[in-house]
Amino acid sequence: MDTTAGEQLRRVAVATLADVPDGTMLMVQVDGTDILLVNLDGVIHAMQGICSHEYFELDKGFLTGDSLTCALHLSRFDLETGEALDPPAELPLARYPATVEADGTIVLGLPEGPIPINE
Ligand code: FES
Question: N or C: which end of the chain has fewer CB within 10 A?
Answer without folding.
Answer: N
